[in-house]
From TrEMBL, chain A:
Membrane topology per record: Multi-pass membrane protein
PROSITE patterns: ABC_TM1 (PS50928)
Record protein name field: Unannotated protein
UniProt key word Disulfide bond: no
Spans traversing the lipid bilayer: 21-50, 56-80, 92-112, 124-144, 174-193, 213-232, 253-280, 310-329, 341-362, 374-391, 398-417, 437-459, 494-516, 546-566
Keywords from the UniProt entry: Cell membrane, Membrane, Transmembrane, Transmembrane helix, Transport
Ranges of residues in domain ABC transmembrane type-1: 333-567
Gene Ontology CC terms, in alphabetical order: plasma membrane
Membrane found in the keyword field: yes
Signal sequence residues: none
GO biological process: transmembrane transport
UniProtKB/TrEMBL annotation, chain B:
Protein name: Unannotated protein
Pfam family, one: BPD_transp_1
Entry annotated with the keyword Cell inner membrane: no
Any one cellular-component term (Gene Ontology): plasma membrane
Domain ABC transmembrane type-1: 192-382
Organism: freshwater metagenome
Residue spans crossing the bilayer: 15-36, 229-248, 260-281, 302-327, 364-383
Cell compartments where the protein resides: Cell membrane
Keywords: Cell membrane, Membrane, Transmembrane, Transmembrane helix, Transport
Primary site of residence: membrane
CDD domains: TM_PBP2
Topology versus the membrane: Multi-pass membrane protein
GO biological process: transmembrane transport
InterPro entries from the UniProt entry: MetI-like, MetI-like_sf
UniProtKB/TrEMBL annotation, chain C:
Keywords assigned by UniProt, alphabetized: Signal, Transport
Pfam families: SBP_bac_1
The protein's name in its UniProt record: Unannotated protein
Gene3D superfamilies xref list: Periplasmic binding protein-like II
SUPFAM superfamilies: Periplasmic binding protein-like II
Subcellular locations according to the entry: Cell envelope
CDD domains assigned: PBP2_TMBP_like (cd13585)
Cellular component aspect of the GO annotation: cell envelope
Length: 578, 398, 432
């Protein structure tokens, strides 16, 4: 018996268990839900007798007890309903099981401290990296061989190859085979070094020691999975007289469940929590008082007085406009908003307009223009921190390459241009002076973003119908007129989309500033590069003002939301227009 | 006539196009080329000014067991001699010829003979010394200089000159060892393998959940589907920074903080990925599915046996998206992983630390950057189409 | 066949249980982690080897060393996040200025009670750091009987790193000779800087200084001024003497003698573009790599008030959340022992924080630079110890004053405007 057959036999055996369960589903599943009801009741009783078992829920003592009891009673109803064959009960039972699986596996995960497995896997992965490198090498080898083979095949069909091509293919086949051997060898080396079996043993062992409760929860989760299979089985389906659409509905919920649970746990939950936190004065641990909208007022508060008048307590002057003086409760927040506004009006056009022009040029489809598309795209894949650190070295005012290049260009221009010579020594303090620091961030942002936008514009250009151009040509339009009268209007939605996404990205500016600006204080010099996200980071993770930081996060969210909404409406209108 | 005019115009517009594209391409590539060249420079070379593009290394010879760098020194006969610097910061005297005031040189006092005589020079009385040939010189001051030995004739008297005035003997050469050095630095190699691991796990996790969810949203009718999908779409626009504080609190609460798992588990769910897969699945003809259903195949089988093989382009697109996201993520690992915890460090924050720690040796920082950005760029070159699709599908279809 | 399978299953199961006995969360006795902020890999390696040595001594300490984030990637801020997450090391190093900030936020332990159980004596260390480390936060005054926040790891001080080639080219007198003759003062410094800038050619600067408080702070102090009033409860940057020092430095920048303030001056210095570079002892290991020009160090130029160089220090402190305070203090003692300090000063980056002649001798014997004595002189000649702000907020003060000075040196602010407003701007640091 070879490996594959044995595997299939095993599959058959497991499916036999499931079939058995499915056949007896009508009797077994109510029992299971009665058992669950018992478990929940025990939990309810325990939570009264031994409040310490509640752990993090301890603060909600009575509510937790009530919840356990309520859910327990619900299980009884489900069990009875299942017995009677009510469709509602089947649905509720499925939801219960899904939740139960999630909770039981999470508890097992926590009790066994399986999170530590990640570090062990990291260790093993580090030690076995050589094997992986061999595999990658082998794959690359194989891919190259396949490409060569394809090129030889070109023109002739797969089945009928000319004898000449066949002869040329023979060494390529050897190449392919060598690639496969390398991959196999790599996998072998990797398995030996990585040693997944030890990891498995440790993982399973952790379920029993130090606390076998983890194993119990895993067992319960497995049982619950089996019960779910039984609930979905044909017998049960007939028992509750479910139709095709009922089955589809259940399958739908089942398929969305993983994403939905993840969404709740890691996005919706934290989002709500953050909203709650923004109404508290909270330093992360000891101090926590409800302050209503104070965090928002304290962040946004502005006061306008005519010149000479005094501000209320707590307000600091931030600007003079039209003879009026504006004061703010939180000048740093407004400085960050001011900075990001300046950043938006400079960086976004720089990242969008060149992209539009370059996309048009690339779409002329001169030979080799695809290469340029690829080159322009590189900065956006390379990773912000890496490229920013490169720029940081280039931007040093006295020995950096950037100023040196400007200087050399000036020297060359001095030969050509009449009038006063340009300075032959350039020492712009890109990283140190208030007037240039944001400009440096703009340069790095635009440089790393325009290539991505170019690709978006190319897609937009490709979707413009050729007939429009032909019509314009018949009218005798030259290429510039074609660009102005055909391309630009047709590209409006794309332009709008590109601008909106760039704006949304720019509003979240953090990495570039963090990597570019020193020393120590991010936002140096004189807060010239303080952005809202940097400010949020400082509030939350440097000063531990989690309440205030959450409020800033929500304000920023509101701003981004407005831009998204504008874009969304716009797209909707276009969709309707079509 | 008209034809040739239009030909010329055509040609000149072509040249202009190439010129614009080419100049922009060079501007894009320059930082990368500088980084590559800087990453194989020696630490001296990376600090030279004006900046040079190619990596040079100084040639040196061994004298008395010490490395002595070679310098070019113009000889009296007009040729260029190679001298090795054996000492720096030597205090020597400046001499000027009495017979011929044009002869000026630097040498220690011991190299000349004190004649005991003095002479009046620019209103000052200075001692007169003579050399081996009997010519006499006046001592006009002292200087701190380097001492140089003739590489071809070690017995010749030492030559003295200020180091800044001499040109070192250099040749273009790449210091490949920088890469090994940076890998050993502060667990940088571990950061790389960790990043690879995290990326693999995040990508496969996102693919799994997105395919399941995408299929349900595309093909299964169930109550509440459309409203859930709307919430889903909405969540794409939630900036990550909004949840970063509560998510951090959550990680602390369940004790996942400072662990590779905290970089993986919260990120295997992707609203964008689900959306992307859904958009693709919607376009697959219904007939395929219905035929399979009649044959008694389960939804699960249909999804993996029929839909997934047909959706390779969308999967590739999602892979590139998740790959870039996982590989380059910075703010989250910065917050959730302890400083100094090499076991769980990943590349972007490790680079940021390297940028501070390696201030003494920018060549090593650049070598680290090259290692970090090599993988995404290599993957991009191999799978260009998927990347471009990813960029284009990020909104136009929506 | 079936029996066989059972046997395998039993064997596997017991193997599982056996291997599982280790579990994932193994609790071992007196395991401590500690962390510093090394400036380079050599330093990190020495700390790691010290960690291993102490573990090997078998004195009940099982140590793991972590190299923390570097200065440029916000070591202290990251540390605070880690403490909030409950995962920070048991013992860690922080700069002297941050002691109060950490202590007042309850992040570090008062170790006086632990210290009393051991043979520790405050008097083994320099007074400046110890005064700041024994402050009672309630009163803001030292109380060595009740408080001990940590022990200083090292001290350090500023010197001028000289590019001798550029000085030679400028044809000015050697600052080292001037210092010996007692003529190395502000005027001589300005003259030298001017000459180097003029003679050096395009881009060469007379001097360079880092963009942080101690650089301009030296000119404030040696001009007779100071950051704070005598009991450190208010800003004193607007006093005439303080402003005189800053005004002198602004003059240097306005004349173009300096590398732009706020830029990292180390790359241009190493590229041979800067004549005199103000930096601490910690820059010496990096300077040893210089091959392009001859270099040495000299004392900072004397101002109207003699001495007043900085006495920098940082201290090992104990995480307030440590599970084992006694072992943690033992570790702090081990890390500041004569033996360990000797090893660290052999790196050339630090001056021992213990008042021990043996350690100083070891330090002096380590050349280049030839003129190591410059550092020792600065430490013994009435230095100003860097210190935390017990009745205020140092980071807030640093930020406010730093921004004001940066604007001053970069020409966007006048000296009068600075004098009039700087202490109002910094008032937030004193709760006002």
């Amino acid at each position: 018996m070879n490996f594959l057959e044995r595997w299939q036999n095993r599959r058959k055996k497991t499916s036999r268990i499931i079939r058995l369960l499915s056949n007896k589903a009508v009797t077994i599943t109510p029992v299971w839900h009665f058992a669950l009801a018992g478990l929940l009741m025990v939990a309810a009783v325990l939570s009264v007798l031994l409040p310490s078992t509640l752990g993090p829920l301890a603060g909600f003592g009575l509510a937790a007890t009530a919840l356990c009891a309520g859910l327990g009673i619900l299980q009884v109803f489900i069990a009875i309903g299942l017995k009677r064959g009510s469709g509602w009960s089947r649905r509720a039972a499925l939801v219960t099981n899904i939740l139960f699986i999630a909770i039981a596996s999470f508890l097992a995960f926590q009790i066994a401290k399986w999170i530590l497995l990640f570090n062990l896997i990291g260790d093993a992965f580090y030690k076995a990296f050589g094997g992986l490198a061999i595999v990658v090498l082998g794959i690359a080898w194989w891919v190259v061989a396949v490409r060569i083979a394809k090129r030889i095949h070109d023109g002739s069909s797969e089945i009928e190859i000319s004898p000449k091509a066949a002869r040329r293919l023979r060494p390529v086949k050897v190449l392919k085979r060598v690639g496969q051997v390398i991959v196999l060898a790599g996998i072998l080396v990797w398995v030996i070094q990585f040693n997944p079996f030890t990891l498995m043993f440790v993982a399973l062992g952790a379920l029993f020691v130090p606390n076998p409760l983890a194993a119990v929860f895993v067992l319960l989760a497995i049982l619950s999975i089996l019960m779910m299979r039984a609930l979905l089985g044909e017998i049960m389906s007939r028992h509750v007289s479910a139709n095709q659409s009922e089955e589809e509905k259940l399958a739908g919920w089942l398929f969305v469940a993983p994403s939905l649970l993840g969404f709740m746990a890691f996005l919706a939950g934290p989002l709500l929590y953050s909203l709650v936190m923004s109404f508290f004065d909270w330093n992360g641990s000891s101090r926590m008082t409800f302050v209503g909208f104070d965090n928002y007022f304290g962040t946004l508060g502005l006061q306008v007085v005519s010149n000479g008048d005094a501000f209320n307590v707590g307000f600091t002057k931030i600007a003079d406009i039209f003879g009026l003086t504006v004061g703010a409760l939180d000048p740093l927040f407004w400085r960050s908003m001011y900075n990001i506004a300046i950043f938006l009006v400079t960086a976004v056009p720089l990242a969008v307009v060149p992209a539009l022009i370059l996309a048009t040029l690339i779409e002329l489809r001169l030979p080799g223009s695809k290469v340029f598309r690829a080159i322009f795209f590189i900065p956006s894949v390379a990773g912000v921190i890496g490229v920013t650190l490169i720029w940081k070295q280039m931007l040093n005012s006295s020995v950096g390459f950037f100023n040196y290049a400007i200087q050399e260009i000036f020297i060359m221009l001095n030969f050509v241009l009449p009038g006063d010579p340009l300075p032959t020594r350039v020492e712009i303090g890109w990283l140190s002076t208030e007037q240039w620091a944001l400009a440096a961030v703009v340069v790095v942002f635009a440089w790393s973003q325009f290539g991505f936008n170019t690709v978006l514009f190319i897609a937009g250009l490709q979707s413009i119908s050729k007939e429009l151009y032909e019509a314009a040509e018949l009218d005798g339009a030259n290429s510039f007129q074609k660009f102005r009268n055909v391309t630009l209007p047709a590209l409006k939605p794309t332009t709008f989309f590109v601008t909106a996404t760039t704006v949304i990205l720019a509003l979240q500016l953090f990495d570039i500033v963090f990597a570019l600006n020193q020393p120590n204080v991010v936002g140096f010099p004189n807060n010239a590069t303080l952005t809202p996200v940097v400010y949020l980071y400082q509030l939350g993770f440097q000063q531990g003002e989690f309440g205030r930081a959450s409020a800033v996060a929500w304000i920023l969210f509101a701003v981004i939301f407005i831009f998204t909404l504008i874009q969304f409406n716009r797209q909707k209108k276009e969709a309707e227009a079509i | 006539m008209a034809k040739s005019v239009s030909l010329v115009r055509n040609l000149s517009s072509k040249i202009l196009t190439y010129l614009i594209l080419g100049v922009t391409g060079i501007l894009v590539l320059i930082p990368f080329l500088l980084a590559i060249s800087g990453s194989v420079k020696t630490v001296d070379d990376v600090f030279t000014y004006p900046p040079r593009f190619l990596p040079y290394s100084a040639t040196s010879i061994e004298i008395d067991g010490k490395e002595a760098p070679l310098f070019e020194i113009p000889m009296e006969d007009g040729s260029i001699g190679e001298f090795a610097r054996v000492k720096q910061g030597v205090t020597v005297r400046q001499w000027v010829g009495i017979e011929d005031p044009a002869v000026k040189f630097l040498a220690p006092k011991e190299q000349l003979q004190d004649t005991g005589k003095t002479i009046e020079l620019d209103g000052e009385t200075v001692g007169v010394f003579s050399d081996a040939a009997g010519k006499s010189f006046a001592n006009v001051g002292s200087a701190i200089v380097g001492a140089y030995q003739d590489a071809s004739d070690p017995s010749a008297p030492l030559y003295y000159a200020p180091s800044a005035d001499l040109k070192p003997v250099e040749s273009v050469s790449a210091e490949i060892g920088n890469f090994g050095e940076v890998l050993a630095l502060n667990g940088f190699d571990r950061s790389i393998t960790n990043t690879v691991l995290v990326t693999i796990l995040v990508v496969s996790g996102q693919l799994f959940t997105s395919i399941l969810g995408g299929y349900a949203f595309a093909r299964l009718r169930f109550k509440g589907r459309d409203s859930i999908f709307l919430v889903w779409l909405g969540s794409i626009m939630i900036p990550f920074v909004v949840v970063i504080i509560p998510l951090f609190q959550l990680m602390v609460g369940i004790d996942w903080v400072n662990n590779l798992g905290s970089l993986v588990l919260p990120f295997v769910f992707s609203a964008y990925g689900t959306f992307l897969m859904r958009q693709f699945f919607v376009t697959i003809p219904k007939e395929l599915e219905e035929a399979a259903l009649i044959d008694g195949a389960s939804r699960w089988t249909i999804l993996w046996k029929i839909f997934v093989p047909l959706s390779i382009p969308a999967i590739a697109t999602l892979t590139t998206f998740a790959f870039l996201y996982a590989w380059n993520s910075f703010l989250w690992p910065l917050i959730v992983i302890d400083s100094g915890n090499q076991a769980a460090s990943v590349l972007a924050p490790a680079l940021s630390v390297l940028g501070g720690r390696g201030a003494d040796s920018p060549n090593l920082i650049l070598a680290g950057i090259i290692l970090a950005i090599a993988a995404p760029i290599a993957v991009f070159i191999f799978a260009q189409r998927a990347f471009v699709e990813n960029a284009q599908s990020s909104g136009l279809k929506g | 066949m079936r029996l066989n399978k059972k046997a395998i299953a039993v064997a596997l199961g017991s193997a599982l249980l056996l291997s599982g006995c280790a579990g994932l969360d193994t609790a071992e006795p007196a395991k401590l982690t500690w962390m510093t902020r090394p400036d380079n890999q050599a330093e990190a390696d020495v700390y790691a080897s010290i960690s291993d040595e102490i573990t090997a001594q078998n004195i009940g300490l099982n140590l793991t060393y972590k190299a923390g984030n570097s200065e440029g990637s916000s070591y202290q801020d990251k540390l605070k996040t880690d403490i909030a997450a409950g995962t920070a090391p048991d013992v860690f190093w922080i700069p002297g200025t941050d002691i109060a900030d950490f202590a007042k936020a309850g992040l570090i332990l008062n170790m006086r009670d632990e210290a009393k159980k051991t043979d520790h004596k405050d008097s083994d260390f320099y007074e400046g750091p110890m005064a700041s480390l024994t402050v009672d936060p309630a009163t803001g005054q030292p109380n060595a009987d009740t408080h001990l926040w940590g022990l200083p790891r090292d001290v350090s001080t500023f010197a001028l790193y000289l590019n001798l080639d550029l000085i030679q080219k400028a044809g000015v007198e050697d600052p080292r000779e001037l210092a010996k003759a007692g003529k190395w003062d502000w005027a001589a410094f300005e003259k030298t800087a001017a000459a180097i800038t003029k003679a050096g050619g395009a881009g060469v600067k007379g001097f360079g200084a880092g963009g942080w408080w101690a650089n301009w702070g030296y000119f404030v102090n040696s001009g007779g001024g100071s950051f704070f009033n005598a009991d450190r409860t208010a800003c004193a940057l607007d006093s005439d003497a303080s402003v005189a020092g800053l005004s002198y430095m602004k003059g240097l920048y306005d004349n173009g003698y300096g590398v732009k303030y706020g830029e990292d001056a180390e790359p241009p210095f190493k590229a041979g573009q800067v004549g005199m570079f103000i930096n601490g002892r910690w820059a010496t290991p990096g300077a040893r790599e210089i091959k392009n020009f001859a270099w040495d160090v000299v004392n900072l130029p004397t101002g109207p008030t003699a001495g007043k160089n900085w006495q920098f220090w940082g201290a090992y402190v104990v995480n307030a959340k440590t599970k084992n305070p006694a072992a943690a203090f033992k570790l702090v003692q081990q890390l500041t022992s004569v033996d360990v300090q000797g090893k660290i000063s052999e790196l050339g980056a630090n001056i021992p924080s213990r008042k021990s002649q043996a350690a100083i001798d070891k330090f002096l014997g380590f050349t280049p630079p030839e003129n190591n004595q410059a550092f020792v002189d600065a430490i013994s000649n009435d230095p100003v110890a860097e210190g935390p702000l017990w009745q205020g907020n140092w980071p807030a003060f640093d930020k406010a004053a730093g921004d004001a000075v940066s604007a001053l040196f970069n020409g966007t602010r006048t000296i009068d405007d600075f004098k009039a407003k700087v202490c109002t701007e910094a008032s937030g640091a004193f709760g006002g």
